[in-house]
Design a protein that fits this description.
Length: about 425
């Protein structure tokens, strides 16, 4: 096959690097280039250009970085097997493990020679467009397993790949997936252990084995597996949070705090600390371990709502706190909304919204009273406080059905 006519998607936010890359590729005989300045633009062009055969992407970029773009490509039904090469500087080598986890085909460290570039591109293209029998068997198996949902047909190809290369780890990994899908859990674990014996850094095998242990509620084994791979790939924040959740199941407060503190620092370093959905996971994980409510509140104040002035977020997180029985902190969040309602001139809180916030505040008082008090006399002060707050909810919206039901319930208790 003539590789020289293939179309390259070059992704880099450094225009100087692109200006150097294209003449180098032209000197190697390649002529067709599509350029993008970041992962977001690359993803758009990948979905709208007529043809792209290989991606060369920088690692550190704004909007969507190289690792995130690689993940989007690998999770796509259309582009999942598109050749992808990461091009990055020496200072970013510690992040390359993340790209290996998502099946990057190769990576090149800057600066590099034309000969090095040619060697890596040729190897990647050869594996894709003229694959040896082993890689061809794996590809057919993956297509049947993930694209066509035919695990039994896929099994034969993974068996063939394993016979061609008995010391390769991937055939065991894919057979483990099939075992797991078909409910053969012990066989799946055996395949994953063999996969890991052959390739210790096979992150996906560790992750699947840890997930199986989690489903079995064997949290001690889950922790062992996740710790092993986290030592090899310490910058995977999602895995770190999973590990923290496993430690939370074991009620290991010290480990949870250590891992989540590290995860927050990683998020900041990777530009994810402003991602509320992501930081919410850290917040919720803190709450799963008794005694770490203050740390959860610290995450909220530092990363999610620094000025504590977003009523919707305050209400949402107050409800999360309530579900985890951090009643005092939940009350302080909701009282913050009350303070905004009363003192800030331009707060954009409608009367209907405030009726909901008051109602939620009353519910937290009731649940705290019921949790902390065993008798009606012990619960009465909390009920009385909730009763006064429900009145305020109905002042804001006298048709609030849940508030009326709660008022009726409280009147009967009092």
């Amino acid at each position: 096959m003539d590789y020289k006519n293939l179309f390259f998607l070059l992704v880099d936010d450094n225009s100087t690097m692109l200006a150097l890359m294209m003449p180098m590729l032209k000197g190697l005989g390649y002529a067709n280039f599509i350029v993008a300045s970041d992962g977001q633009e690359a993803w758009y062009k990948l979905n709208h250009e007529d043809r792209i055969d290989i991606i060369l992407s920088d690692l550190v970029m704004p909007k969507i970085n190289g690792i995130e773009l690689l993940g989007m490509v690998r999770n796509s039904e259309k582009f999942w097997d598109l050749p992808f090469i990461i091009v990055t500087g020496e200072e970013n080598k510690d992040q390359l493990m993340s790209s290996v986890e998502i099946d990057v085909n190769s990576y090149i460290i800057k600066p590099f020679t034309p000969e090095k570039l040619d060697k890596e591109i040729s190897a990647v293209l050869h594996e894709k467009y003229d694959p040896p029998p082993y890689h061809l068997a794996l590809r057919h198996g993956r297509e049947l397993l993930f694209q066509q949902n035919e695990p039994e047909a896929a099994w034969a190809y993974f068996e063939k790949a394993g016979a061609l290369h008995p010391l390769e780890a991937d055939p065991y990994y894919f057979r483990a997936i099939i075992h797991e899908q078909l409910g053969r859990i012990d066989e799946a674990k055996d395949c994953l252990r063999q996969c890991i014996r052959l390739k210790e850094a096979h992150t996906k095998a560790h992750d699947l084995l840890a997930l199986i242990y989690h489903r079995e509620q064997n949290y001690a084994e889950e922790v062992k597996v996740l710790n092993t791979i986290s030592e090899l790939s310490p910058n995977n924040i999602a895995r770190n949070i999973t590990l923290a959740n496993a430690y939370a199941k074991l009620d290991d407060k010290v480990a949870v705090k250590k891992i989540l503190t590290h995860s927050a620092k990683l998020a900041k370093a990777q530009g994810k600390s402003h991602d509320r959905a992501f930081m919410t996971k850290i917040f919720q994980t803190y709450l799963k371990t008794a005694g770490l409510g203050d740390d959860a509140e610290g995450v909220y104040r530092k990363y999610i709502d620094r000025r504590m002035d977003n009523p919707q977020l305050l209400n949402r997180f107050a409800m999360i706190l309530k579900e985890n029985k951090y009643f005092d902190t939940a009350i302080s969040f909701l009282e913050r909304i009350v303070n905004i309602w009363r003192t800030v001139k331009r707060h954009d809180i409608t009367s209907d919204d405030m009726a909901v916030y008051y109602f939620n505040l009353a519910v937290v008082h009731v649940e705290r009273a019921m949790t902390n008090g065993k008798t009606l006399s012990e619960r009465r002060p909390g009920y009385e406080e909730a009763r006064a707050i429900v009145d305020k909810s109905l002042d804001c919206n006298n048709r609030h059905a849940d508030a009326m039901k709660l008022l009726d319930w409280l009147d009967k208790k009092l």
